[in-house]
Amino acid sequence: MTSRSLLSLVFLSFAACVLPARAADLTLRIDQVATADGQVMVALFDRADNFLKRPVRVANAAATAGSITLVIKDLAPGDYGVAVYHDANGNGKMDTNPMGIPLEPIAFGNDVQGHMGPPAFDAARLAVPAAGLAASVSLR
Hints:
The chain is mainly beta. The protein has one helix spanning 3-18, and strands at residues 24-33, 39-45, 57-62, 66-75, 78-87, 106-108, 125-128, 133-138. It is built from one helix and eight strands; from the N terminus they run αββββββββ. It is globular, with a radius of gyration of 20 Å.
């Protein structure tokens, strides 16, 4: 083996060790969209301490009555807390009453519901493997 061939082999071996893992896609079907008004908004959170505060990824799609599917591409494999709402009036925010209770339909990963507040990160967490994940939630 020539020194050039050996050098190429060493480089390829090294590159395979330091290249990032393949990015994953999360395919999320959102059911029970009441109307075709506004948009459906999705936020992903990677840690419990930023759940419902600082999303690491957001996505949105025009609402369609019934079900819609959103594909969030190129995620690092890992755990993500999922929060969804139907921005029916298209104002770009989740409307709440004076007590902070959502006035627009919402959903969380694993279709969990909160009791006297939103669910915990661990309850709404989806594990996204390198191969990707398909999941569904229903707006309420």
